[in-house]
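Hello Y.,

Per our agreement to keep a running log of every chain we model this quarter, I'm adding this entry. I've kept the format consistent with earlier entries: sequence first, then predicted structure.
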Amino acid sequence: MRRYGVRAARHPAVVALVTWVVATPVAMLLPALADRSPFSPRGAMLPIAAGGLLLAAGLALATVRIDRWLGPSRTEPLTGVAAGLLAAWVALALRNSLHGTPFGFAGLTGDEGRMSAMVTRYSATAVPSDGIVAGVPTEYPPLFPWAAGRAAALLGADAWRVLGDAQILTVSGAVLVTFLLWTRLVPAPAALAIAAVALVAFGDPRKAHEVVALAVFIPWVAATFGRPPRGRPHWLPAGILGGLVVATYLGFVLWGAAGILVLAWLTWRTSGDRRRYLTYLAKVVAVAAVTAAWYLVPYGWTLVSEGGQMVSDMFPAPAITGDPFPFLVATPLGVLQTIGLLGLVWYRRTMWWAMPLLWLVAGAYLYRVLGAARYILTGHTGLFYHTARMITVLLAIAGVLTVVQAAPGLLRRLAARDTLPSGVAATALAALIGWSAFTYWDAWTPPAGGTAAVSGTRRYATLAHTEPRPGGTLPRYAPDEPAVRWFPVEPVRRAVTSVLGRDAAPRTLSYDERLFAYLPWPGYIAVDRTAASSTSHWDDRHAALAALAAVSDPNTFARAAGRTRYGRIDVFVLRAGPNAWTWRDIRFRPAQFAAAHFTVRSLPGGTVVAIRRTP
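Predicted structure for the entry above:
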Protein backbone atom coordinates (compact mmCIF):
# COMPACT_ATOMS: atom_id res chain seq x y z
CA MET A 1 0.00 0.00 0.00
CA ARG A 2 2.82 2.38 0.89
CA ARG A 3 4.65 1.55 -2.34
CA TYR A 4 1.49 2.31 -4.34
CA GLY A 5 1.16 5.68 -2.61
CA VAL A 6 4.76 6.55 -3.43
CA ARG A 7 4.23 5.61 -7.08
CA ALA A 8 1.06 7.71 -7.23
CA ALA A 9 2.86 10.69 -5.70
CA ARG A 10 5.57 10.43 -8.37
CA HIS A 11 3.10 10.24 -11.23
CA PRO A 12 3.76 13.22 -13.55
CA ALA A 13 0.09 14.25 -13.40
CA VAL A 14 0.16 14.46 -9.60
CA VAL A 15 3.50 16.27 -9.61
CA ALA A 16 2.22 18.74 -12.23
CA LEU A 17 -0.89 19.52 -10.19
CA VAL A 18 1.06 20.06 -6.97
CA THR A 19 3.63 22.23 -8.76
CA TRP A 20 0.89 24.36 -10.32
CA VAL A 21 -0.92 24.83 -7.00
CA VAL A 22 2.31 25.99 -5.34
CA ALA A 23 3.72 28.10 -8.18
CA THR A 24 0.60 29.85 -9.49
CA PRO A 25 -0.03 32.12 -6.46
CA VAL A 26 3.58 33.28 -6.74
CA ALA A 27 3.12 33.93 -10.45
CA MET A 28 -0.03 35.95 -9.82
CA LEU A 29 1.69 38.11 -7.17
CA LEU A 30 5.02 38.68 -8.94
CA PRO A 31 3.87 41.49 -11.31
CA ALA A 32 2.50 43.47 -8.36
CA LEU A 33 5.76 42.99 -6.45
CA ALA A 34 7.80 44.14 -9.46
CA ASP A 35 5.26 46.95 -10.03
CA ARG A 36 6.33 48.03 -13.51
CA SER A 37 4.21 49.17 -16.41
CA PRO A 38 3.54 46.35 -18.90
CA PHE A 39 3.98 48.98 -21.62
CA SER A 40 7.60 49.53 -20.61
CA PRO A 41 10.34 47.18 -21.88
CA ARG A 42 11.45 46.36 -18.32
CA GLY A 43 7.92 45.60 -17.23
CA ALA A 44 7.06 43.56 -20.31
CA MET A 45 10.19 41.40 -20.02
CA LEU A 46 9.38 40.09 -16.53
CA PRO A 47 7.79 36.81 -17.76
CA ILE A 48 10.59 36.27 -20.28
CA ALA A 49 13.24 36.68 -17.60
CA ALA A 50 11.47 34.27 -15.24
CA GLY A 51 10.77 31.78 -18.02
CA GLY A 52 14.33 31.99 -19.30
CA LEU A 53 15.73 31.06 -15.89
CA LEU A 54 13.42 28.05 -15.68
CA LEU A 55 14.27 26.96 -19.21
CA ALA A 56 18.00 27.29 -18.55
CA ALA A 57 17.66 25.10 -15.46
CA GLY A 58 15.80 22.49 -17.51
CA LEU A 59 18.46 22.46 -20.20
CA ALA A 60 21.16 22.08 -17.56
CA LEU A 61 19.41 18.99 -16.22
CA ALA A 62 19.17 17.56 -19.73
CA THR A 63 22.84 18.25 -20.41
CA VAL A 64 24.15 16.47 -17.33
CA ARG A 65 21.90 13.44 -17.97
CA ILE A 66 20.23 13.51 -14.58
CA ASP A 67 18.75 10.07 -15.28
CA ARG A 68 22.20 8.61 -14.56
CA TRP A 69 21.75 9.68 -10.95
CA LEU A 70 18.03 9.20 -10.44
CA GLY A 71 17.23 6.44 -12.92
CA PRO A 72 14.72 6.75 -15.80
CA SER A 73 11.71 5.88 -13.59
CA ARG A 74 12.48 8.85 -11.33
CA THR A 75 13.07 11.43 -14.05
CA GLU A 76 9.51 11.22 -15.38
CA PRO A 77 8.16 13.31 -12.46
CA LEU A 78 10.44 16.10 -13.68
CA THR A 79 8.20 16.33 -16.73
CA GLY A 80 5.32 16.92 -14.34
CA VAL A 81 7.28 19.71 -12.67
CA ALA A 82 7.89 21.27 -16.09
CA ALA A 83 4.20 21.07 -16.98
CA GLY A 84 3.13 22.66 -13.69
CA LEU A 85 5.69 25.44 -14.10
CA LEU A 86 4.62 26.07 -17.72
CA ALA A 87 0.99 26.45 -16.63
CA ALA A 88 2.01 28.77 -13.78
CA TRP A 89 4.21 30.77 -16.16
CA VAL A 90 1.17 31.36 -18.37
CA ALA A 91 -0.55 32.90 -15.34
CA LEU A 92 2.52 35.12 -14.84
CA ALA A 93 2.57 36.26 -18.47
CA LEU A 94 -1.13 37.12 -18.55
CA ARG A 95 -1.21 38.69 -15.08
CA ASN A 96 1.76 40.86 -16.07
CA SER A 97 -0.13 42.07 -19.15
CA LEU A 98 -3.06 43.14 -16.97
CA HIS A 99 -0.97 44.71 -14.21
CA GLY A 100 -2.37 48.15 -13.45
CA THR A 101 -5.90 47.59 -14.74
CA PRO A 102 -8.98 46.07 -13.07
CA PHE A 103 -10.35 44.84 -16.40
CA GLY A 104 -9.85 41.63 -18.33
CA PHE A 105 -8.51 41.32 -21.86
CA ALA A 106 -10.35 43.60 -24.34
CA GLY A 107 -11.86 45.58 -21.46
CA LEU A 108 -15.62 45.73 -21.92
CA THR A 109 -15.57 45.84 -25.71
CA GLY A 110 -18.05 43.62 -27.55
CA ASP A 111 -18.23 40.06 -26.28
CA GLU A 112 -16.13 40.89 -23.23
CA GLY A 113 -18.70 43.38 -22.05
CA ARG A 114 -21.38 40.74 -22.42
CA MET A 115 -19.23 38.19 -20.58
CA SER A 116 -18.77 40.71 -17.78
CA ALA A 117 -22.55 41.20 -17.74
CA MET A 118 -23.02 37.44 -17.29
CA VAL A 119 -20.48 37.36 -14.46
CA THR A 120 -22.24 40.33 -12.85
CA ARG A 121 -25.62 38.62 -13.24
CA TYR A 122 -24.34 35.46 -11.54
CA SER A 123 -22.90 37.48 -8.68
CA ALA A 124 -26.52 38.28 -7.80
CA THR A 125 -28.14 34.92 -8.60
CA ALA A 126 -27.14 31.30 -9.01
CA VAL A 127 -29.99 30.58 -11.43
CA PRO A 128 -28.84 30.28 -15.08
CA SER A 129 -30.21 33.31 -16.92
CA ASP A 130 -29.30 35.69 -19.70
CA GLY A 131 -26.64 38.22 -18.78
CA ILE A 132 -28.72 41.23 -19.82
CA VAL A 133 -32.37 40.15 -20.02
CA ALA A 134 -32.77 38.71 -16.54
CA GLY A 135 -35.33 35.96 -16.07
CA VAL A 136 -34.74 34.54 -19.54
CA PRO A 137 -32.95 31.14 -19.60
CA THR A 138 -29.44 31.49 -20.90
CA GLU A 139 -28.58 30.27 -24.36
CA TYR A 140 -24.86 30.70 -23.84
CA PRO A 141 -23.21 27.91 -21.80
CA PRO A 142 -23.07 29.34 -18.28
CA LEU A 143 -20.40 27.41 -16.36
CA PHE A 144 -17.49 29.87 -16.70
CA PRO A 145 -19.38 33.12 -15.93
CA TRP A 146 -21.41 31.30 -13.27
CA ALA A 147 -18.24 30.15 -11.47
CA ALA A 148 -16.67 33.62 -11.75
CA GLY A 149 -19.86 35.34 -10.58
CA ARG A 150 -20.35 33.05 -7.61
CA ALA A 151 -16.68 33.54 -6.69
CA ALA A 152 -17.22 37.31 -6.77
CA ALA A 153 -20.25 36.95 -4.51
CA LEU A 154 -18.30 34.73 -2.12
CA LEU A 155 -15.36 37.16 -2.00
CA GLY A 156 -17.58 40.22 -1.76
CA ALA A 157 -15.82 41.71 -4.80
CA ASP A 158 -17.13 43.61 -7.80
CA ALA A 159 -17.84 41.01 -10.46
CA TRP A 160 -16.29 43.07 -13.27
CA ARG A 161 -13.01 43.12 -11.34
CA VAL A 162 -12.97 39.32 -11.04
CA LEU A 163 -13.22 38.57 -14.76
CA GLY A 164 -9.56 39.31 -15.59
CA ASP A 165 -8.21 36.93 -12.96
CA ALA A 166 -10.81 34.34 -13.98
CA GLN A 167 -9.54 34.54 -17.56
CA ILE A 168 -5.93 34.16 -16.41
CA LEU A 169 -6.49 31.21 -14.10
CA THR A 170 -8.69 29.44 -16.64
CA VAL A 171 -6.12 29.61 -19.44
CA SER A 172 -3.37 28.60 -17.03
CA GLY A 173 -5.56 25.75 -15.81
CA ALA A 174 -6.25 24.72 -19.40
CA VAL A 175 -2.52 24.13 -19.95
CA LEU A 176 -2.45 21.98 -16.83
CA VAL A 177 -5.63 20.09 -17.79
CA THR A 178 -4.24 19.39 -21.26
CA PHE A 179 -1.19 17.77 -19.71
CA LEU A 180 -3.20 15.85 -17.10
CA LEU A 181 -5.59 14.32 -19.62
CA TRP A 182 -2.98 13.49 -22.23
CA THR A 183 -0.61 11.81 -19.75
CA ARG A 184 -3.18 9.02 -19.53
CA LEU A 185 -2.98 8.54 -23.29
CA VAL A 186 0.63 9.24 -24.31
CA PRO A 187 4.05 9.45 -22.59
CA ALA A 188 4.48 12.45 -20.29
CA PRO A 189 6.99 14.33 -22.53
CA ALA A 190 4.56 14.09 -25.46
CA ALA A 191 1.74 15.36 -23.23
CA LEU A 192 3.92 18.31 -22.23
CA ALA A 193 4.66 19.10 -25.87
CA ILE A 194 0.93 18.94 -26.67
CA ALA A 195 0.15 21.35 -23.83
CA ALA A 196 2.75 23.80 -25.15
CA VAL A 197 1.68 23.82 -28.81
CA ALA A 198 -2.05 23.83 -28.00
CA LEU A 199 -1.49 27.06 -26.07
CA VAL A 200 -0.04 28.72 -29.17
CA ALA A 201 -2.67 27.24 -31.49
CA PHE A 202 -5.55 28.59 -29.40
CA GLY A 203 -4.93 30.26 -26.07
CA ASP A 204 -7.06 33.41 -26.40
CA PRO A 205 -7.65 34.69 -22.84
CA ARG A 206 -10.75 36.57 -24.00
CA LYS A 207 -12.21 33.14 -24.75
CA ALA A 208 -10.72 31.40 -21.72
CA HIS A 209 -13.77 29.18 -21.31
CA GLU A 210 -13.39 27.97 -24.89
CA VAL A 211 -9.69 27.28 -24.34
CA VAL A 212 -10.34 25.03 -21.35
CA ALA A 213 -13.35 23.37 -22.99
CA LEU A 214 -11.26 22.43 -26.02
CA ALA A 215 -8.43 21.26 -23.75
CA VAL A 216 -10.86 18.73 -22.26
CA PHE A 217 -12.89 17.94 -25.37
CA ILE A 218 -10.16 16.57 -27.65
CA PRO A 219 -8.58 14.01 -25.27
CA TRP A 220 -12.06 13.19 -23.93
CA VAL A 221 -13.26 12.20 -27.41
CA ALA A 222 -10.09 10.23 -28.14
CA ALA A 223 -10.25 8.35 -24.84
CA THR A 224 -14.02 7.80 -24.69
CA PHE A 225 -14.96 6.98 -28.27
CA GLY A 226 -11.64 5.60 -29.54
CA ARG A 227 -9.42 2.69 -28.55
CA PRO A 228 -6.71 4.09 -26.24
CA PRO A 229 -4.00 1.56 -25.32
CA ARG A 230 -4.61 1.91 -21.57
CA GLY A 231 -8.37 1.43 -21.94
CA ARG A 232 -11.24 3.84 -21.78
CA PRO A 233 -11.97 5.87 -18.64
CA HIS A 234 -14.80 4.76 -16.39
CA TRP A 235 -18.17 5.89 -17.71
CA LEU A 236 -18.91 8.08 -14.67
CA PRO A 237 -15.94 10.49 -14.90
CA ALA A 238 -16.13 10.34 -18.70
CA GLY A 239 -19.77 11.42 -18.57
CA ILE A 240 -19.08 14.18 -16.06
CA LEU A 241 -16.30 15.58 -18.25
CA GLY A 242 -18.59 15.52 -21.28
CA GLY A 243 -21.31 17.36 -19.39
CA LEU A 244 -18.86 19.98 -18.15
CA VAL A 245 -17.69 20.58 -21.73
CA VAL A 246 -21.30 21.12 -22.83
CA ALA A 247 -21.95 23.55 -19.96
CA THR A 248 -18.71 25.42 -20.71
CA TYR A 249 -18.89 25.70 -24.50
CA LEU A 250 -21.36 23.71 -26.56
CA GLY A 251 -19.84 24.66 -29.92
CA PHE A 252 -17.08 22.05 -29.94
CA VAL A 253 -19.60 19.27 -29.38
CA LEU A 254 -21.71 20.50 -32.29
CA TRP A 255 -18.76 20.93 -34.64
CA GLY A 256 -17.32 17.55 -33.75
CA ALA A 257 -20.63 15.65 -33.63
CA ALA A 258 -20.37 14.12 -37.12
CA GLY A 259 -16.79 13.01 -36.49
CA ILE A 260 -17.73 11.53 -33.11
CA LEU A 261 -20.56 9.54 -34.63
CA VAL A 262 -18.32 8.10 -37.34
CA LEU A 263 -15.59 7.31 -34.81
CA ALA A 264 -18.07 5.60 -32.50
CA TRP A 265 -19.43 3.54 -35.39
CA LEU A 266 -15.96 2.46 -36.53
CA THR A 267 -14.96 1.56 -32.97
CA TRP A 268 -18.19 -0.40 -32.52
CA ARG A 269 -17.57 -2.35 -35.73
CA THR A 270 -14.16 -3.52 -34.52
CA SER A 271 -15.15 -4.01 -30.89
CA GLY A 272 -14.90 -7.50 -29.42
CA ASP A 273 -18.00 -6.88 -27.31
CA ARG A 274 -20.29 -4.53 -29.22
CA ARG A 275 -23.07 -4.60 -26.67
CA ARG A 276 -20.72 -3.66 -23.86
CA TYR A 277 -19.36 -0.75 -25.91
CA LEU A 278 -22.87 0.57 -26.64
CA THR A 279 -23.81 0.24 -22.98
CA TYR A 280 -20.70 2.18 -22.04
CA LEU A 281 -21.52 5.00 -24.48
CA ALA A 282 -25.12 5.11 -23.26
CA LYS A 283 -23.94 5.55 -19.67
CA VAL A 284 -21.49 8.28 -20.69
CA VAL A 285 -24.17 10.19 -22.61
CA ALA A 286 -26.67 9.80 -19.75
CA VAL A 287 -24.23 11.12 -17.14
CA ALA A 288 -23.23 13.98 -19.45
CA ALA A 289 -26.89 14.92 -19.92
CA VAL A 290 -27.49 14.90 -16.16
CA THR A 291 -24.34 16.97 -15.53
CA ALA A 292 -25.41 19.64 -18.04
CA ALA A 293 -29.15 19.44 -17.22
CA TRP A 294 -29.11 22.60 -15.08
CA TYR A 295 -28.29 24.49 -18.28
CA LEU A 296 -29.92 22.40 -21.03
CA VAL A 297 -33.32 21.71 -19.42
CA PRO A 298 -34.44 25.36 -18.87
CA TYR A 299 -33.02 26.36 -22.24
CA GLY A 300 -34.60 23.47 -24.11
CA TRP A 301 -37.97 23.81 -22.36
CA THR A 302 -38.12 27.51 -23.26
CA LEU A 303 -37.43 26.79 -26.91
CA VAL A 304 -40.11 24.09 -26.96
CA SER A 305 -42.76 26.01 -25.04
CA GLU A 306 -42.13 29.58 -26.21
CA GLY A 307 -39.97 29.25 -29.29
CA GLY A 308 -36.94 31.37 -30.02
CA GLN A 309 -35.59 33.93 -32.45
CA MET A 310 -32.08 32.95 -33.48
CA VAL A 311 -30.29 36.14 -34.48
CA SER A 312 -26.91 35.75 -32.78
CA ASP A 313 -25.44 33.85 -35.74
CA MET A 314 -26.20 36.62 -38.24
CA PHE A 315 -23.25 38.82 -37.30
CA PRO A 316 -21.09 39.51 -40.40
CA ALA A 317 -17.85 38.48 -38.72
CA PRO A 318 -14.63 39.02 -40.73
CA ALA A 319 -13.72 35.39 -39.99
CA ILE A 320 -16.54 34.26 -42.30
CA THR A 321 -14.22 34.81 -45.24
CA GLY A 322 -11.10 33.77 -43.32
CA ASP A 323 -8.62 31.15 -44.47
CA PRO A 324 -10.05 27.68 -43.73
CA PHE A 325 -6.63 26.04 -44.12
CA PRO A 326 -4.44 27.18 -41.20
CA PHE A 327 -1.94 24.41 -41.88
CA LEU A 328 -0.86 26.12 -45.13
CA VAL A 329 0.46 29.23 -43.39
CA ALA A 330 4.26 29.53 -43.59
CA THR A 331 4.93 29.65 -39.84
CA PRO A 332 6.42 27.12 -37.41
CA LEU A 333 2.90 26.31 -36.23
CA GLY A 334 1.71 25.94 -39.82
CA VAL A 335 4.55 23.53 -40.58
CA LEU A 336 3.71 21.49 -37.49
CA GLN A 337 0.06 21.39 -38.52
CA THR A 338 0.96 20.23 -42.03
CA ILE A 339 3.02 17.44 -40.50
CA GLY A 340 0.02 16.63 -38.32
CA LEU A 341 -2.37 16.38 -41.26
CA LEU A 342 -0.01 14.11 -43.15
CA GLY A 343 0.54 12.06 -40.01
CA LEU A 344 -3.19 11.55 -39.49
CA VAL A 345 -3.51 10.10 -42.96
CA TRP A 346 -0.29 8.08 -42.78
CA TYR A 347 -0.91 6.55 -39.34
CA ARG A 348 -4.69 6.19 -39.53
CA ARG A 349 -4.48 2.37 -39.58
CA THR A 350 -1.50 1.89 -37.29
CA MET A 351 -1.66 4.44 -34.45
CA TRP A 352 -4.69 4.55 -32.17
CA TRP A 353 -4.72 8.37 -31.91
CA ALA A 354 -4.87 9.04 -35.64
CA MET A 355 -8.49 7.97 -36.19
CA PRO A 356 -10.06 10.09 -33.41
CA LEU A 357 -8.17 13.23 -34.45
CA LEU A 358 -8.70 12.61 -38.16
CA TRP A 359 -12.47 12.21 -37.80
CA LEU A 360 -12.75 15.26 -35.56
CA VAL A 361 -10.95 17.29 -38.24
CA ALA A 362 -13.16 15.83 -40.97
CA GLY A 363 -16.32 16.48 -38.94
CA ALA A 364 -15.32 20.09 -38.31
CA TYR A 365 -14.70 20.67 -42.02
CA LEU A 366 -18.03 19.05 -42.88
CA TYR A 367 -19.78 21.39 -40.44
CA ARG A 368 -17.93 24.32 -42.01
CA VAL A 369 -19.00 23.40 -45.55
CA LEU A 370 -22.64 22.87 -44.57
CA GLY A 371 -22.59 26.06 -42.48
CA ALA A 372 -21.25 28.08 -45.41
CA ALA A 373 -24.00 26.73 -47.67
CA ARG A 374 -26.63 27.56 -45.06
CA TYR A 375 -25.20 31.05 -44.69
CA ILE A 376 -25.56 31.70 -48.42
CA LEU A 377 -29.18 30.52 -48.37
CA THR A 378 -30.43 31.99 -45.08
CA GLY A 379 -27.92 34.46 -43.66
CA HIS A 380 -27.43 32.25 -40.59
CA THR A 381 -23.84 31.12 -40.06
CA GLY A 382 -24.23 28.62 -37.24
CA LEU A 383 -20.83 30.13 -36.28
CA PHE A 384 -19.19 27.77 -38.79
CA TYR A 385 -16.10 29.97 -38.97
CA HIS A 386 -15.26 29.17 -35.34
CA THR A 387 -14.41 25.61 -36.39
CA ALA A 388 -10.97 27.02 -37.23
CA ARG A 389 -10.21 27.15 -33.50
CA MET A 390 -10.79 23.42 -33.13
CA ILE A 391 -9.08 22.48 -36.39
CA THR A 392 -5.91 24.40 -35.63
CA VAL A 393 -5.52 22.74 -32.23
CA LEU A 394 -6.33 19.28 -33.57
CA LEU A 395 -3.68 19.53 -36.28
CA ALA A 396 -1.10 20.96 -33.87
CA ILE A 397 -1.65 18.00 -31.52
CA ALA A 398 -1.46 15.62 -34.47
CA GLY A 399 1.81 17.26 -35.47
CA VAL A 400 3.32 16.58 -32.06
CA LEU A 401 2.19 12.96 -32.06
CA THR A 402 3.47 12.44 -35.61
CA VAL A 403 6.89 13.84 -34.73
CA VAL A 404 7.04 11.73 -31.56
CA GLN A 405 6.25 8.64 -33.61
CA ALA A 406 8.45 9.31 -36.64
CA ALA A 407 11.40 11.37 -35.38
CA PRO A 408 13.28 8.71 -33.36
CA GLY A 409 13.60 6.40 -36.35
CA LEU A 410 14.65 9.22 -38.65
CA LEU A 411 17.25 10.51 -36.20
CA ARG A 412 18.68 7.04 -35.67
CA ARG A 413 19.09 6.67 -39.41
CA LEU A 414 20.75 10.04 -39.73
CA ALA A 415 23.08 9.28 -36.83
CA ALA A 416 23.75 5.74 -38.07
CA ARG A 417 23.31 4.32 -34.61
CA ASP A 418 20.70 2.32 -32.69
CA THR A 419 20.12 4.86 -29.92
CA LEU A 420 19.46 8.56 -30.00
CA PRO A 421 22.32 10.91 -29.10
CA SER A 422 22.09 11.91 -25.44
CA GLY A 423 19.99 14.93 -24.62
CA VAL A 424 18.45 15.32 -28.09
CA ALA A 425 14.87 14.65 -27.03
CA ALA A 426 15.10 16.80 -23.90
CA THR A 427 16.71 19.67 -25.81
CA ALA A 428 14.08 19.51 -28.54
CA LEU A 429 11.31 19.56 -25.95
CA ALA A 430 12.91 22.50 -24.15
CA ALA A 431 13.23 24.37 -27.45
CA LEU A 432 9.57 23.71 -28.25
CA ILE A 433 8.47 24.97 -24.84
CA GLY A 434 10.67 28.05 -25.17
CA TRP A 435 9.27 28.86 -28.61
CA SER A 436 5.70 28.32 -27.43
CA ALA A 437 6.14 30.51 -24.37
CA PHE A 438 7.82 33.36 -26.27
CA THR A 439 5.22 33.25 -29.05
CA TYR A 440 2.39 33.39 -26.54
CA TRP A 441 4.01 36.19 -24.54
CA ASP A 442 4.59 38.18 -27.73
CA ALA A 443 0.94 37.80 -28.77
CA TRP A 444 -0.66 38.87 -25.49
CA THR A 445 1.70 41.50 -24.07
CA PRO A 446 0.82 45.18 -24.66
CA PRO A 447 3.11 46.93 -27.16
CA ALA A 448 5.74 49.30 -25.80
CA GLY A 449 4.12 52.68 -25.32
CA GLY A 450 0.88 51.46 -26.90
CA THR A 451 2.24 52.28 -30.37
CA ALA A 452 0.77 49.17 -32.01
CA ALA A 453 -2.44 49.23 -30.02
CA VAL A 454 -4.78 49.05 -32.99
CA SER A 455 -3.46 45.84 -34.56
CA GLY A 456 -3.25 42.15 -33.75
CA THR A 457 -3.94 40.37 -30.50
CA ARG A 458 -1.91 42.97 -28.61
CA ARG A 459 -4.88 45.28 -29.10
CA TYR A 460 -6.87 43.24 -26.61
CA ALA A 461 -4.21 43.60 -23.92
CA THR A 462 -4.14 47.35 -24.58
CA LEU A 463 -7.93 47.71 -24.43
CA ALA A 464 -7.82 46.32 -20.90
CA HIS A 465 -5.85 49.46 -19.95
CA THR A 466 -7.88 52.03 -21.93
CA GLU A 467 -11.32 51.04 -20.59
CA PRO A 468 -12.61 53.83 -18.30
CA ARG A 469 -13.75 52.87 -14.83
CA PRO A 470 -17.42 53.42 -13.85
CA GLY A 471 -16.59 56.92 -12.62
CA GLY A 472 -14.65 57.85 -15.76
CA THR A 473 -11.05 57.57 -14.53
CA LEU A 474 -8.58 55.52 -16.57
CA PRO A 475 -6.38 52.66 -15.33
CA ARG A 476 -2.91 53.43 -14.08
CA TYR A 477 -0.88 52.83 -17.24
CA ALA A 478 -3.47 53.76 -19.87
CA PRO A 479 -1.89 54.86 -23.16
CA ASP A 480 -3.37 57.61 -25.31
CA GLU A 481 -4.56 55.21 -27.99
CA PRO A 482 -6.93 53.62 -28.65
CA ALA A 483 -9.35 55.98 -26.93
CA VAL A 484 -12.44 54.30 -25.44
CA ARG A 485 -15.59 56.35 -24.92
CA TRP A 486 -16.71 56.56 -21.29
CA PHE A 487 -20.23 55.46 -20.47
CA PRO A 488 -21.30 57.22 -17.22
CA VAL A 489 -22.26 54.16 -15.21
CA GLU A 490 -21.61 55.68 -11.81
CA PRO A 491 -23.66 58.84 -12.50
CA VAL A 492 -26.49 56.62 -13.76
CA ARG A 493 -26.35 54.52 -10.60
CA ARG A 494 -26.38 57.59 -8.34
CA ALA A 495 -29.31 59.13 -10.20
CA VAL A 496 -31.39 55.96 -10.01
CA THR A 497 -30.65 55.12 -6.38
CA SER A 498 -31.39 58.70 -5.32
CA VAL A 499 -34.94 58.13 -6.58
CA LEU A 500 -35.57 54.43 -6.04
CA GLY A 501 -33.25 53.68 -3.11
CA ARG A 502 -29.77 52.22 -2.79
CA ASP A 503 -30.96 48.60 -3.08
CA ALA A 504 -32.99 49.20 -6.22
CA ALA A 505 -32.59 46.80 -9.14
CA PRO A 506 -34.87 48.37 -11.77
CA ARG A 507 -35.63 46.84 -15.16
CA THR A 508 -33.63 49.08 -17.44
CA LEU A 509 -33.47 50.03 -21.09
CA SER A 510 -29.91 51.21 -21.78
CA TYR A 511 -28.31 52.31 -25.02
CA ASP A 512 -24.96 50.90 -23.82
CA GLU A 513 -24.53 47.34 -22.54
CA ARG A 514 -21.71 48.45 -20.26
CA LEU A 515 -24.36 49.29 -17.69
CA PHE A 516 -25.07 45.58 -17.21
CA ALA A 517 -21.36 44.74 -17.09
CA TYR A 518 -21.17 46.78 -13.88
CA LEU A 519 -24.63 46.55 -12.30
CA PRO A 520 -26.79 43.43 -11.81
CA TRP A 521 -29.89 45.26 -12.96
CA PRO A 522 -32.31 43.35 -15.19
CA GLY A 523 -32.29 44.66 -18.73
CA TYR A 524 -35.25 44.93 -21.04
CA ILE A 525 -33.38 44.15 -24.26
CA ALA A 526 -29.80 43.68 -25.45
CA VAL A 527 -28.35 46.47 -27.56
CA ASP A 528 -26.58 44.28 -30.12
CA ARG A 529 -29.14 42.24 -32.05
CA THR A 530 -26.57 39.78 -33.39
CA ALA A 531 -25.37 38.98 -29.89
CA ALA A 532 -28.79 38.49 -28.30
CA SER A 533 -30.00 35.16 -26.98
CA SER A 534 -32.72 33.47 -29.05
CA THR A 535 -34.71 32.98 -25.83
CA SER A 536 -34.96 36.76 -25.38
CA HIS A 537 -36.99 37.23 -28.63
CA TRP A 538 -35.02 40.31 -29.63
CA ASP A 539 -37.08 41.18 -32.70
CA ASP A 540 -40.37 41.00 -30.76
CA ARG A 541 -38.96 43.09 -27.92
CA HIS A 542 -37.72 45.64 -30.45
CA ALA A 543 -41.20 45.81 -31.99
CA ALA A 544 -42.75 46.30 -28.55
CA LEU A 545 -40.28 49.08 -27.85
CA ALA A 546 -41.08 50.78 -31.16
CA ALA A 547 -44.78 50.61 -30.33
CA LEU A 548 -44.10 52.19 -26.94
CA ALA A 549 -42.11 55.02 -28.52
CA ALA A 550 -45.08 55.77 -30.79
CA VAL A 551 -47.31 56.61 -27.79
CA SER A 552 -47.44 60.40 -27.65
CA ASP A 553 -49.63 61.12 -24.61
CA PRO A 554 -47.40 61.29 -21.47
CA ASN A 555 -49.95 59.65 -19.18
CA THR A 556 -50.64 56.82 -21.61
CA PHE A 557 -46.91 56.45 -22.22
CA ALA A 558 -46.21 56.06 -18.49
CA ARG A 559 -48.90 53.39 -18.16
CA ALA A 560 -47.66 51.57 -21.28
CA ALA A 561 -44.06 51.61 -20.01
CA GLY A 562 -45.31 49.81 -16.92
CA ARG A 563 -46.89 46.93 -18.81
CA THR A 564 -45.24 46.16 -22.12
CA ARG A 565 -45.54 42.67 -23.58
CA TYR A 566 -42.23 41.77 -21.94
CA GLY A 567 -42.70 43.49 -18.62
CA ARG A 568 -42.29 46.99 -17.32
CA ILE A 569 -39.46 49.41 -17.97
CA ASP A 570 -38.44 51.30 -14.83
CA VAL A 571 -35.43 53.22 -16.12
CA PHE A 572 -34.63 54.61 -19.56
CA VAL A 573 -30.95 55.35 -20.25
CA LEU A 574 -30.91 57.10 -23.62
CA ARG A 575 -28.68 59.17 -25.86
CA ALA A 576 -29.63 62.82 -25.55
CA GLY A 577 -30.26 64.79 -28.72
CA PRO A 578 -31.70 68.23 -29.43
CA ASN A 579 -35.16 66.94 -30.38
CA ALA A 580 -35.15 63.26 -29.41
CA TRP A 581 -33.69 60.79 -26.95
CA THR A 582 -32.65 57.62 -28.76
CA TRP A 583 -32.04 53.94 -28.21
CA ARG A 584 -30.47 52.53 -31.37
CA ASP A 585 -32.97 53.36 -34.13
CA ILE A 586 -35.87 54.12 -31.78
CA ARG A 587 -36.61 57.77 -31.00
CA PHE A 588 -38.29 58.91 -27.83
CA ARG A 589 -39.44 62.49 -27.30
CA PRO A 590 -38.59 64.39 -24.10
CA ALA A 591 -42.26 65.35 -23.71
CA GLN A 592 -43.19 61.68 -23.22
CA PHE A 593 -41.34 61.64 -19.89
CA ALA A 594 -43.62 63.96 -17.95
CA ALA A 595 -42.51 65.14 -14.51
CA ALA A 596 -45.65 63.62 -12.99
CA HIS A 597 -44.38 60.16 -13.82
CA PHE A 598 -40.60 60.37 -14.40
CA THR A 599 -37.58 61.93 -12.79
CA VAL A 600 -35.23 63.02 -15.57
CA ARG A 601 -31.51 63.71 -15.13
CA SER A 602 -29.02 64.87 -17.74
CA LEU A 603 -25.65 63.16 -17.34
CA PRO A 604 -22.18 63.49 -18.88
CA GLY A 605 -21.39 62.03 -22.28
CA GLY A 606 -24.67 63.01 -23.90
CA THR A 607 -26.65 60.65 -21.69
CA VAL A 608 -30.07 61.21 -20.21
CA VAL A 609 -31.77 58.97 -17.62
CA ALA A 610 -35.52 58.88 -17.01
CA ILE A 611 -36.65 57.08 -13.85
CA ARG A 612 -40.28 56.02 -13.66
CA ARG A 613 -41.79 56.96 -10.31
CA THR A 614 -45.36 55.77 -10.84
CA PRO A 615 -46.19 52.10 -10.08
